[in-house]
Amino acid sequence: MTDSGQTQLSMVDLHSHLVPGVDDGTTTAAESIAALSDLYRQEVRTVVTTPHLLLPNLGSDGAIDRELELHRRAFHDLALACLERNDLPSVALGQEIWAPDAAAVRRVVWRPDVGLAGGRYLLVEFGFELQGNHNDVVREVQEAGRQIVIAHPERYHYLPDHNPIDVMRTWQELGALLQVNVGSLTGHYRRSSPQSEGLAWQMIDAGLADILATDHHGPRREGVSPAEARNALIARGQLALAERAMVEIPGMIARNDPVGSRLPR
Ligand SMILES: [Fe+2]
Fold first, then answer.
1. Residue 202 clears pLDDT 70, i.e. is over it
2. Could you tell me the distance, in angstroms and rounded to a whole number, from the CA of residue 212 to the centre of ligand 1?
3. CA of 254 relative to ligand 1 center, distance in Å
């Protein structure tokens, strides 16, 4: 504990786009290193960076192979550049998998070269305009013996007759872990998804926020301050949740430890 009574955090960030030149995130190693250095200053000590794997755009297994190889090569070069610095978090590679349906995720769920830090956890997004409840994707991943982490549920547009909190609760009951973007808690997506801030706080209050992560896209997009999000949580009496969602659970995932049944809330 610090003198102020706040626990020192060594945060783990499981969602970002900091492999240079492979997606809509950073474009150069210098940009990636600047972002990593900034995260380190905010007490992030481990980053699993997650380039987009846009399955609907990849028409064959060969196309998936080539995309993953592209990620690995660019990540390798970044990791080498990071070795020269002592003010950066440790970095590992994952993917943010766009899988709108079970058939899409079935194409990669068996692959040992897909997963957060090479482990059993898959970070999956369904697409911003939801076409249904997407429970089929959750079941497909769970039935393959892996675990799904659903990226930023607070940013999706739900069908008009769907209550977002009810849909999220069903995902969690099916075994999914839900990842909220730190920027949602501090209003950074008000223009692109006006509902995201309110939904993120509803998720916090309803016990639906398992993981907080940056979804950092480099210097051209704002809204990626884990320290600001942590302070916002502390201001609302949610220090314990901040520790669980920014340190403990993402730490287990980065180490490929089983998160298992719900931790006490
Ligand atoms: Fe992302």
1. yes
2. 12
3. 17
Question: ∠ at Cα 53 (60, 173), nearest 5°?
Answer: 110
Contact assessment for residue 46 and residue 251, using Cβ atoms and an 8 Å cutoff: yes
- Say how many Å lie between the CA of residue 122 and the centre of ligand 1: 13
Question: CA-CA distance, 47 to 250, in Å (whole number)?
Answer: 10
**Distance in angstroms (rounded) separating the CA atoms of residues 215 and 24:** 11
Q: What is the spatial distance between Cα 50 and Cα 16, in angstroms, rounded to a whole number? A: 5
Topology of the domain comprising 11-254: TIM Barrel (3.20.20)
The Å distance, Cα 52 to ligand 1 centre, comes to: 7
Q: Is 81 in contact with 29 (CB distance < 8 Å)?
A: yes
Model confidence at 8: pLDDT above 60: no
| Residue count of the chain | 265
Tokens coding 80: 């080498």
Nearest to 123 by CA among 199, 179, 207, 65: 179
Residues around the ion ligand 1 (C-beta < 5 A): 96, 215
**14 C-alpha to center of ligand 1: Å?**
10
CA of 3 to the centre of ligand 1 (A): 36
Tell me the domain boundaries of the chain: 11-254
- Global pTM? 0.95
Q: Which whole-number Å values give the CA distances from 62 to 59, 65, 67, 125, 221, in the listed order?
A: 8, 5, 9, 22, 32
Using one digit for the tens of pLDDT, what is the confidence trace for 106-121? Answer: 999 999 999 999 999 9
Distance from residue 15's CA to the centre of ligand 1 (Å): 6
